[in-house]
Amino acid sequence: MSVDVRIEGDSLYVNPRSRDVQPGEGLTSWLQRVFYLPTGFVARLFDEQRVIVGHHVGHKQDLMRPGQGFHLTGDIVVNPGVLSAPEWASDIVSLFEDEHLLVVDKPSGLLIHGEAGRDPDTLDARVAAHYEKQGVQRRVLHAHRLDKCTSGLVLYAKHAYSGRTLDTLIRQKQVSRTYLALVHGRPIQATGTIDTAIGRDRHMAGRYRVHVGGKPAFTHYNTLGTARVGNQRWSLLKCRLDTGRTHQIRVHLASIGCPVVGDNLYGAGNESGTDPQLFGLPKWEGHALHAWRLEWYHPYAGRSMEVVSAPSGIFSQWLSFLKLAALVQKD
Questions:
Q1: Are the beta carbons of 247 and 147 closer than 8 angstroms?
Q2: Residue 272 binned pLDDT confidence (cut-offs 50, 70, 90)
């Protein structure tokens, strides 16, 4: 099922077809079912008279009429909420974009959101500059985050309605993120699930640890391949999360004796005594974790979407050196 949805000025115009509507379905329940909008948000739209059916203000008890369009007004043309990136900043790499959603490939070493006046170049600021170049005013709304040194895919909502929808889809686990992690050693079990709880480390600010009193966390991993150079061994893992705890993959992989390469906070840092320059490789600045594949359900298009981002930079060089790069292409 796909729905005719488009932006008209400061409103979202929706024109449902007969196959989009269940018999006797109300407009309130339709917005919740098809657009995954929260109950309270939908109620507020009606209370604020922001639902316009034809030329009249809509009511909560209105029934859906196939072929009769309606508008959800406001929350489209708004201040971005963040200063656009300075001219010297790089442009974003967009891997998917329509009127409602944007998928950006974040480089390692870049914050998603920083402090105003202190961090002028962030991914949010680059997205704001991207909108500015398009000549549109849109609030910058990232649907999830990545650590500063984790590279890869980040999903953005381009208006409040798709933002609320993504919030619901994430809670319902209809947004799936798969990561690639280059780690030291090799897991004892090639495939498995790490289901230990994660909590703050009371002895070090900003650090987390496996802790029975922490929040539940589930990381599914699969070993794509292992390489050995001298007495050193590295493995390339594919990881998928059922939960989104801070530093979850890094904490979980370190807990099974396979810290992420380059991770000074949880692992061996710069290769456990091995100097990468001996191999003609640069030292890691950050860690070898990449948000590789993003899958989600697009309610307006009525189908599942998938975007993939290949690792680049130092990560790519290491995979090529270890002869593991081909495994990313095959999977």
A1: yes
A2: very low
27-34 vs 39-47: helix crossing angle, rounded to 10? 140
Amino acid at 166: L
Query: Which residues are catalytically annotated?
Result: 147
* Whole-number pLDDT of residue 55: 87
- What confidence tens digit (pLDDT) does each residue in 108-161 have? 999 999 877 788 999 999 999 999 999 999 999 999 999 999 999 999 999 999
Q: Which domains does the chain carry?
A: 4-73 (3.10.290.10), 94-171 (3.30.2350.10), 175-330 (3.30.2350.10)
Residue type, 141: L
Count Cα atoms within 13 angstroms, Cβ side, for 107. 14
Decide if 177 contacts 325 (C-beta within 8 A). Answer: no
Tokens of 290: 């990449």
Cα 167 to Cα 188: distance, rounded to the nearest angstrom: 36
